[in-house]
Amino acid sequence: MPFWYTPRVALKIDQDHARFRHIVRGRIRKNLRKFISKGELIGRKGKDQVSIPIPHIEIPRFRFSDQQAGGVAQGDGEVGDPLGQGQEGPGKGKAGQGEGEHALEVEISIDELAEILGEELELPDIQPRGKSRIQMAHDKYSGIRRVGPESLRHFRRTYREALKRQIVSGTFNPNQPVVIPTPDDKRYRSWKTSTEPAANAVIIYMMDVSGSMGDEQKEIVRIESFWIDAWLQKQYKGLESRFIIHDSVAREVDRETFFRTRESGGTMISSAFKLCKKIIETDYSPDQWNIYPFHFSDGDNWSMDDTLACVDIMKQSLLPWSNMFAYGQVESPYGSGQFIKDLREHFAADGRLVLCEIPNKDAIVASIKEFLGKGK
Amino acid sequence: MSQFALNTILPRYLQVERERVDKAVRQVGLDPFPTVFEMITYDQMNEIASFLGFPSRYQHWRFGMEYERLSKSYEYGLSKIYEMVINNNPAYAYLLEGNSLTDQRLVMAHVYAHVDFFKNNFCFRATDLDTLGSIIDPSQRQPDYNPNRRWIDKMANHGSLVARHIERQGIDKVESFIDHCLSLENLIDPWTPFTARTEKKKPVDDEEGPREIDVPRLAAKDYMEDFINPQEYLDRQRRKIEREQEQQKRFPPEPQRDVLRFLMDHAPLERWERDVLSVVRAEAQYFVPQMQTKIMNEGWASYWHSKIMTEHILSAAEIVDYADRNSGVMATAPGQLNPYKLGVELYRSIETRWNRGQFGREWEECQNLEDKRHWDMRLGLGQKRIFQVRALYNDVTFIDEFLTPEFVREHKMYSFGYSGKSGNYEIESRDFAAVKQKLLFQLTNFGHPYIRVHDANHQNRGELLLVHEHQGVDLRKDYAHATLEAMVRVWKRPCAVATKLEGKNVLVRYDGSEHSEQAYTVT
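^ Those are the sequences you sent over. The predicted structure of the assembly is below.
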């Protein structure tokens, strides 16, 4: 071992630490629903670490209630003065073995959270479509051969061959260890080409931003799409997201705008579907991409004609192109919620369309399961 | 292979320092066990600190949790552990690699004083082991005191014992049982090692069935019988005897404070469960003296490190570094008691008082503040007295005896409590009596509630009745519930604790599936 590299010595505590992480994972799983419906995590990505407060991971004992307790300390101040922020609560720093209440902050990556989410909701792994058709070739330098360019010469192997030869032939002198390779000794790195199925996926989020969609509704969509993103991110290596907002006209926006915009006006869902169709046609050839359109709305479409236009687009193009078309309808005091009923009517038995109503934040988890539970 | 073994030996320059400090320590009259210093990295330091000072413990997640906390706060630069020392014979102490020379010296001086305290304070006699590894009677101290305190070995043995059971029973089963035992960890009697073993019960001879109660009569002549021993009196006596007999049938006959011991002796435990419980209890007992003497122990170590450093070790150039570090250790924060600070100041106050003769009846009765201020009888008993105090007191008696109104005023001590009005912790009082009372309350039973086993056959159903001795502060209910769950897991029958909540006497009971609460008065 080179002297400049001192590895972290394996510690006995590692075992206990791993046990603790295991327990933490269990705790997170138990409280997952609570974490998921909170908006705080949003905005982080895959490897980002998030701190999650885990309450009550401690060993319960008979103890005094805090409110009645107190303590003794030293310092300035008049009777009746509140103690500053510096104090961590009574019963600390006195006799005892580091007891006291901590809300323990545990760090965990979004990836790991998504995995826990998958375990908890029993989400199946997604079977990508058409993976047999698209192949991606990788070159990997993993082999050795006897011929090759000098730039790929494997010095150590070459040296070893030469040394072997010299020892066998008796020309090696340990007192004067000079090793000279001949062309026969030379070894070169070689590559192997492996083909891997490439599964690329795109999520196209569409949201109704008409006047009837309030902040609360949009928060639901935000949280929901964050977790859908996190899960699909784990499933596909190169996941792309596109965002469309619409009222009576649709336009493509970036992620930030998608969640911020508030517009008034009517709702023509077909406008969004048309734009979605256009995006797919230009950028995402359906035989090469796994396509996930998600549409969120309060279900209050402008007219029946427009609804029929939507149905038409879906039948003709969006449904056949997509792995799954998801429609989430959030409840709003203004919306009629008619759209989901119309869709049910037209696509009653179509497995490619997933419909879900999301009345409030608590329903987010259930709807994630609904959307992603089919493994498509 | 030795090149791969952990190299924790002190480097040469620190060995020289160690010898210097050692010499100074003997010179000032401290009497520590032989002490082994090891130099370790912050990683190892965090590990060992998570194990509460021991290099090897049984397997449990809470050590891992502590490690996570320590290494986080080290990485973020919030805290750093400078020093750790184990009450063991020989004592083991750890120095952190990369600390400055002044820091290392400071730590050494501090450690030696701790070890002196371990050896000489009476509480720590409870950690002496006999050859079988159980706790022996501490009153049998020999003149050349060299006890067996090989707790490092004992803890390692606990580790392998638990590991064996984990292998057979599975980690989840054993670990969750350890969790439950740890819930009950504070239900021990710190004085058990100092008391005689409980006598064996006399076998009850119930061949003939319950005997007719023979009420003793007062001697009287025949004709006076009805007057001397009237029927009422006889009935009263009979009832009293019946009650006493009832009392004897009760089990345990006296309320027992060492709940863990009681469970070990009487709960229906499997072999592995009993082993685990005994490990938890032995280790809890080991840490008791350190909890009993936190203020005294840290105070003693701080007193001596500052004396040894400033009078024997440091050169003038190093004083500032030392003072900087020392002031960090002595810092106080609102709402937190710094045991180092309080301890060291109390020792100094004792030293001054006994040097000047500010004790005894004459001092107590003196009403003249001016006289008191200039009181100096030049007795020079200070040093002698503090050595005595370090041997014969624990935190409770230390505070009780040596905390004076002058001290409380001079050191700006106050008591604080929770104010429902402002929802804040507020300074309650600077009054001597109030401060002292609150401090003593916190230290009594290490700030844990007194809970005893009263009846192992409560309501004749084999249920365990615990009684909380209410001293003005309620139990926290959610914790009580969770602890009762653990208790049921060990006792394997319903368990209940009689206590007082919001002024009402109640029985908080858990029957294995449901928590209940009802009015109840302990008889």
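Chain B touches chain A through 89 residues (CB under 8 Å). DSSP finds 20 helices and ten strands in chain B.

Shout if you want it in another format.
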